[in-house]
Amino acid sequence: MHSKKQASLKYYVGIDVGSASVRAALVDEFGTVVAHADQPIQIWEPQPDHYEQSSADIWAACCLVTKKVVCGVDASRIRGVGFDATCSLVVVDKQFQPLAVNYEGQNYRNVIMWMDHRAVSQVERINATQHRVLSYVGGVMSVEMQPPKLLWIKENLQESCWEKAGYFFDLPDFLSWKATGVTARSLCTVVCKWTYTSDGGWDDGFWKMIGLEDLVKDKYEKIGNHVLSPGESVGKGLTPEAAKDLGLPAGIAVAASLIDAHAGGLGVIGADVKGYNLPCENEPITSRVAMICGTSSCHMGVSETPIFVPGVWGPYFSAMVPGLWLNEGGQSATGKLIDHVVRGHVAFPELQSKAAASAHSIYTYLNSHLDLIKKSLPVGFLTVDLHVWPDFHGNRSPLTDLTLKGMVVGLTLSRGLDELALIYLATIQAIALGTRHILETMQAAGHHINTLFLCGGLSKNPLFVQMHADITGKPVVLSKEVESVLVGAAILGACASGDFVSIQEAMAKMGKVGRVVQPNHEHKRFYDKKYEVFLKLVEHQREYRSIMNSS
Length: 551
Prior knowledge:
551 residues, alpha/beta, seven-stranded mixed beta sheet, 19 helices, 38% helix, globular
């Protein structure tokens, strides 16, 4: 940090609130992560499908990690701050104090997490309206979006929460309010999760039809009547109070925020790919899909004109890249599913001790173990008799059926490490087959996709990456910076500072290609067969459910 070149660099802070932790990075104007810190945050699960957090706990973690990454840096070089977060729902009263979103009345638990599925009944009723706004969410609203959660609060916590509520924030917007004191919302959050449209705004008829007419009466003050584009500067920058909390000077530019997956997309999708011999070179950005894979996975594709894809969210105008329409596919449980399968296996203690003894992570050890047992076969062919349907937490895309369950076909009585490694491999393949299902649905609707750009925690796993290349038949680009979500958040801060003319310019300069993983086309026939079996699994599930539910 002491060379003349570094002394003249401009820096931006990206703050990312994930499901289980808050992370911050100090990123320079070329997209290099100079410093990085993370801090776990608490999750409460008071009953099945109810997941809650605390906005105070989240903000405290934001402050802690930000102070760490800016420690010792010349504050005058830090030009902007960008936030991204999960699309969780934050509830505060008219004085901005937290309100309980639970039956226990615990006010500090004032966040309904994105993955909370308590509002199943509410979302079914919303979808039954077939209102025109639903065409912008793939025709079917997800239980993970905000209208069903708001309706659940009104119907279940009328006196304790609904009537006392002053503001309902998407978590990314709560963070920009906390930093600036301005209640403006990001176009990203309100368009993607709240049914706002970039051309028509809020639709009064929709809110009245679903029983939330109260929100219309106060001109949408509770859910946002001032909307900014992602990367636009909010208010007058950091307030003195927030600046003190974060360890930054007051007045630094704060950007209108993004949902975490969209920040990841921003961090990778616009990278300059010249010289990598990729099919997307010299083609528009619309030939790319950014896949952000962590606890869950999101598949972000952009288009110049709106494309309506059955079972895939969007099209959303300017929700990620200004001027382009966004479609967003997704899988509700990916990293969480792999953890669930591996840690729940009877051989997990043996895996844990062997991985520790070899000083490797459990997943690095599993990947090595698969190489040992594959013999002369390609590693992926080990699952010829083992097949997984990965919707243990329902299907987000492209089937939009949250009642679907996970399936495993091909189990034996074996209980050892070999069997754990095989079910781990089959689970990763199932997730990749799910990605192929989403991509094929997008392409059938009019997208032209030839390259995947991966980021997020699972992109650090070489087996996960190679399976996605082989199963989709498309090259996978990994960014130079593993923490692409944080780079995306920093790009927002860079735009808010005025140092870049546009988000597109910042994306091209700050997003860097690290490595390209090519598909092995010799394995195509095997994976085509796996895909055929994959689609049969859900057919069989629907068939047996139909039998069981018949009178």
